[in-house]
Amino acid sequence: MRVFALTIVLFSSAAAHAAVEVLNRRLDDGQTIIGALTDARVEPQSAMRLIDALDDVFDVRQAKPGHQLRIVRVDGFVENLDYRAGPLDEYQVRRDGWRYVAARRAVAFERKVARFEFDVETSLYEAAMSTGRDPMIAMALADAFGWEMDLTRNAKLGDRAKVLVETLVHHGRVVRYGDVLAASYAPVRGAPMEIFRYQLPGGERAWFFSDGTSAQRTFLKNPVGWAPISSTFGWRMHPIYNEMRFHDGVDYGMPVGTPVHVVASGLVTFAGWTPGGGNMVCVMHEGDYETCYLHLSKLAQGVQADALVYRKEVIAWSGNTGATTRPHLHFNLKHNGFYVDPLRQKFPRTESLPPELYADFSKETAAYLAQLHDDAVPVMAPR
Ligand SMILES: [Zn+2]
């Protein structure tokens, strides 16, 4: 237990001769709230009543190291207990006659839009990671551009990416990143690509170009987001059999346990063990496409033959099972029964914005466009 502030105010003006004591505590590893209260010399009966009250608004079993308590005692009796689980997550228990009542505290925070800018040297992936900021930014970029480009390749020196992210600010400090609102990718040669997120009446939030064309395709570019390609589609010297063999898919090198997303919605046709592929899942999609995911460590719950899976759903975790020399995901795609190169497919775009929504959409995107290029928006520089 660390005491990081202790203030004792005697003889407060409100009640003459009342001794007011304020104690700030922070939960240590393995410490419970009752432990912290006992440590602060709150008598056991009061501690139990405080916790009972707090439990009405905050599940006390969720107490974690680092959570903060502020105990206000008047003449030895606890008047208030503030419980802070996070910058936007505060609770207060206060004495009301002979009982304690608890409430969640309304925490004021501001919503601001922040702009991130990246110089892309080798790949968008490396650019996003090199900022050293919240990995959420990299995830957001994957989400925004993952439909249009392979994030681990295709970049040229001088390419530039920008992204607008909603941020929640409390006391001048960014406490959390919210949604990505818009993003642009300006290649060193060619037209910049600008995409905008828009919430459809059904609640789904989808990506569109400024003319209302969908920026999403029916298939994801790949099932793993960021992982580097370790072997491409085509003829190669096989690492185990040591002879030229046709490699019928793409390998992504990555640690065991990386989430594997199904690239399009469909019906599971196979989920189980094969000697070569180890744990494997195959999914049939619209348009006579079939995808398979090999060498998995574990399948997600409910992923079995005839189950429906939805685009981007995590269906399994990568592994090193079957005939492999190192942890990786082998991903293959069949079209009309033949293996094709997943990296060379041009999948159709999802539906464009319905025309009746266009007026509202363009009003929203005009604001984002200004913020993408307006110098008044704070730029989060890479560090
Ligand atoms: Zn392979």
Q: What string, H for helix and E for strand, traces the elements in order?
A: EEHHEEEEEHHEEEEEEEEEEEEEEEEHE
Small-molecule binders here are:
zinc ion
Oligomer description = single chain
Proportion in β-strands: 35-45%
Structural class: mainly beta
Using the 3D structure, state the CATH architecture of the largest domain. Answer: Roll
Mean pLDDT, to the nearest integer, reads 83
Q: Within the CATH hierarchy, at the fold level, what is the topology of the largest domain?
A: Nuclear Transport Factor 2, Chain: A
Helix count equals: 5
| Secondary structure tally: strands | 24
Q: Any idea what the shape is?
A: globular
The level 1 CATH classification of the largest domain is Alpha Beta
The end-to-end span amounts to 34 Å
Fraction of residues in helices? 10-25%
Poorly predicted runs? 1-16
Rg calc: 27 Å
Can you tell me the number of structural domains? 3
Described by strand count, sense and barrel closure, the largest sheet is: 10 strands, antiparallel
Can you put this structure into words, describing what you see?
- With 383 residues, the protein is mainly beta.
- The chain folds into three domains: 2-105, Nuclear Transport Factor 2, Chain: A, CATH 3.10.450; 110-216 and 356-380, Nuclear Transport Factor 2, Chain: A, CATH 3.10.450.350; 229-344, Distorted Sandwich (Glucose Permease (Domain IIA)), CATH 2.70.70.10.
- The protein has five helices and 24 strands.
- It has helices spanning 33-39, 44-54, 124-130, 135-145, 358-373; strands at 2-9, 20-26, 68-74, 77-86, 89-96, 99-105, 110-120, 159-170, 173-186, 193-199, 205-209, 229-231, 234-237, 244-247, 250-253, 259-261, 266-274, 278-285, 289-299, 308-309, 314-318, 328-335, 338-340, 379-380.
- The strands form four sheets. Strands 12, 15, 16, 17, 18, 19, 20, 21, 22 and 23 form a ten-stranded antiparallel sheet that branches. It has a six-stranded antiparallel sheet with strand order 1-2-3-4-5-6, covered by helices on one side. Strands 11-10-9-8-7-24 form a six-stranded mixed sheet, sandwiched between helices.
- Strand 8 (159-170) and strand 9 form a beta hairpin.
- The longest helix has 16 residues, at 358-373.
- It is globular, with a radius of gyration of 27 Å.
- The two termini are 34 Å apart.
- The relative contact order is 0.11.
- The model is unreliable at 1-16 (pLDDT under 50).
- The chain binds zinc ion.
- Zinc ion binds next to loops.
